[in-house]
Model the fold of this input.
Amino acid sequence: MRYFVELSNEAKVDIKDALDYYSDLSNSLKDRFQNELTQSIEILFKNPLHYQIRYKNIRIIFTNVFPYAIHYIVENEYVYILKVLHTKRFYK
Done:
């Protein structure tokens, strides 16, 4: 089955914040983060049902090196990325 990936506005803000943070540290670090995030989304695009449901029908894929988790849901042929969260931060 072919899937289409859509990012929520919250996910776009999360990604922008992370890119801004890594950009302040180093452009090469920002590029590495962006590449890893892109790779994770490509893996998700190929087989979104591979990852288990964690809560409220939401699945999570973790990046390999950077401490981020991509929270998403699958509805029909669409994969909706809801949030891209840092795994070491506390969220309410």
Summary: The domain at 4-86 is CATH 3.30.2310.20 (YaeB-like fold). Strands lie at 4-7, 53-55, 58-62, 68-75, 78-86. Helices lie at 9-25, 27-46.
